[in-house]
Amino acid sequence: MIFLSKNQLALRNGQDKPEIWIAFCGKIYDLGNSKLWKNGRHYEHWAGQDLTEELNNAPHSANVFDKFEPIGYLK
């Protein structure tokens, strides 16, 4: 597992680097294979960020991350 700072995660936004990664509850997920995150964007959300707080406004629960294995941790 890797450990990334918020600044390092910010580069994995599908634009600056090809990786499409987000953080949720301290874990980092690779969403590059998700059709819903094409080009690093999912509705008004962008990859490369900690989306923990934004989930409160989402139409789905945290279970959406169950189908992805965490690849690291946010430090």
Secondary structure elements and pairings:
Blueprint (H helix, E strand, L loop, with lengths): L1 E3 L1 H5 L10 E4 L2 E4 L10 E2 L2 E2 L23 E5 L1
How would you concisely characterize the structure shown here?
The protein is mainly beta and 75 residues long. It has one helix at 6-10; strands at 2-4, 21-24, 27-30, 41-42, 45-46, 70-74.
Describe this structure in words.
The chain is mostly beta strands and 75 residues long. It has one helix at 6-10; strands at residues 2-4, 21-24, 27-30, 41-42, 45-46, 70-74. The strands form two sheets. Strands 1-6-3-2 form a four-stranded mixed sheet. It has a two-stranded antiparallel sheet with strand order 4-5. The two termini are 12 Å apart.
